[in-house]
């Protein structure tokens, strides 16, 4: 009877240790590598707007400025084409 109990206890404890080590490994991978990617944070629905919000604002500002410059170039070329 004690052998069966010890066998079940060792199986259960081994599963618990494996699960704990897997969670610790994923936590370390998250902290070291995966948390840097906005796509992964969006998949997990984590709103971490502290450090990345300014980067996103800078990107949107530069893209809107580039779009404005393209539109102004198009206007200039179309007006010069119609004048000649």
Structure description:
It is a single chain. With 84 residues, the protein is an all-alpha fold. The chain has one domain (2-83). Helices cover 82% and strands 0% of the residues. The chain contains 3 helices and no strands. It is rod-shaped. The N and C termini lie far apart (102 Å). Residues 75-84 have a biased composition (Polar residues). Residues 49-84 are annotated as: Disordered. Keywords: Membrane, Transmembrane, Transmembrane helix. Pfam families: DUF4750 (PF15938). The chain crosses the membrane at residues 6-29.
Overall pLDDT confidence: 76
Taken in chain order, the helices and strands follow as HHH
Question: N-to-C terminal Cα separation, in Å?
Answer: 102 Å
DSSP, total strands: 0
Rg calc: 28 Å
The proportion of residues forming helix, as a percent range, comes to: over 70%
Number of helices: 3
Q: What does the largest sheet look like? A: none
Which characteristics define this entry?
mainly alpha, single chain, 82% helix, 3 helices, 84 residues
Quick overview of this protein structure:
It holds the Pfam family DUF4750. Residues 75-84 have a biased composition (Polar residues). By secondary structure, the protein is an all-alpha fold.
Q: Mind sketching the topology for me?
A:
Elements: H1 2-32, H2 38-43, H3 52-83
């Amino acid at each position: 009877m004690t052998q069966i109990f010890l066998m079940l206890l060792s199986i259960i404890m081994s599963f618990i240790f494996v699960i704990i080590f897997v969670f610790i490994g994923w936590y370390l991978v998250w902290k070291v590598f995966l948390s840097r990617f906005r796509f992964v944070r969006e998949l997990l629905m984590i709103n971490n707007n502290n450090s990345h919000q300014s980067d996103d604002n800078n990107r949107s500002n530069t893209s809107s400025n580039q779009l404005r410059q393209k539109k102004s170039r198009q206007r200039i070329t179309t007006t010069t084409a119609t004048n000649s």
